[in-house]
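Quick one, T. Sequence first:
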Amino acid sequence: MADFDRITHDPDLMGGKPTIRSMRVTVGAIVEFIGAGHTVEEVLAAYPYLEREDVLQALRYAAWRAEEREVALPDRFGERRDRIR
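Structure tokens:
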């Protein structure tokens, strides 16, 4: 596993989702914010208690997790494929 010292998992916090430094900010919330077109600076403005490295590590963690498993995606006609090729 890669070194993610700012990513924490606590079954009693945020339903066990990965969070930033045991705060109530999930990796998914940060990724969603960036995916919606916001910048790192806008994430930091929205969550002033986060640090730049928190956001960057959340993105690296999400990328690492995405590479770790295969997800079936619908093709252009809405049918699911068994594998990503």
